[in-house]
Amino acid sequence: GAVVSQHPSRVICKSGTSVKIECRSLDFQATTMFWYRQFPKKSLMLMATSNEGSKATYEQGVEKDKFLINHASLTLSTLTVTSAHPEDSSFYICSARADGSNQPQHFGDGTRLSIL
Amino acid sequence: LAKTTQPISMDSYEGQEVNITCSHNNIATNDYITWYQQFPSQGPRFIIQGYKTKVTNEVASLFIPADRKSSTLSLPRVSLSDTAVYYCLVGDVVEEYGNKLVFGAGTILRVKS
Q1: How many CA atoms lie within 13 A of A78 on its CB side?
Q2: Are B90 and B33 in contact (CB under 8 A)?
């Protein structure tokens, strides 16, 4: 149980393209999902908290107009990197937490984004 | 949010027991302690979570002393496939809209044959 699916696993595209990444909780409902970014050999950095039915909460320094988050349902959150540039190249990871107390976060397998 | 401190790296051999300790001196009353494992180019995988004393599951044990200012992840009889980065995280999982996790640097565990 507690499976989180993230798609696509890898994207290579030209500068200026917008890229959408999907995060789905397959066997549980998640009111809250999280988006992280990870640079090579570094730890995960929280970008934003995605809440179903409301606006996402962004961490300091993360541009909300650059990284659009939509939490359309209790099992789906999307991150759209708008007008991507080479500096946006990174490993993006989502996580979801089942509703209820004492539930840990479960992570997707990440999306490797490469902007040429 | 409680800050965590872990050793940067550890080396071990196959078949040995490995204990990774994490310090979290300013842990709050409602905070749970969660450990994750991460392989290169993959998302972190949940290992174990606990609040106090000892928790054991099929892959690991978690020891938490009474003051809860530290915790120790114990991996019995490690194999080469346990080579990974291990993260200790502290957060409030009771919070209605989910706990905000802040990842520390993690511990690189290298298992040798």
Answers
A1: 13
A2: yes
Question: Looking at residues A57-82, what average pLDDT do you find?
Answer: 93
For an interface test with B, give the residue of A9, A11, A31, A43 to mutate (most B CBs within 10 A).
A43
Give the closest residue to B72 by CA, choosing from B92, B91, B93, B47.
B47
* pLDDT tens-digit series, residues B77-91: 999 999 999 999 987
Q: Which of B87, B94, B101 sits opposite A102 (nearest CB)?
A: B94
CB contact under 8 A, B97 and A34: no
User: Are B43 and A93 an interchain contact pair (Cβ–Cβ within 8 Å)?
Assistant: yes
Enumerate the residues of chain A whose CB falls inside 8 A of the CB of residue B41. Answer: 91, 110, 112
- Contact between A39 and A98 under an 8 Å Cβ cutoff? The reply is no
Distance CA A97, CA A29 (A): 8
How buried is B26 (Cβ within 10 angstroms: 0-12 exposed, 13-18 middle, 19+ buried)? exposed
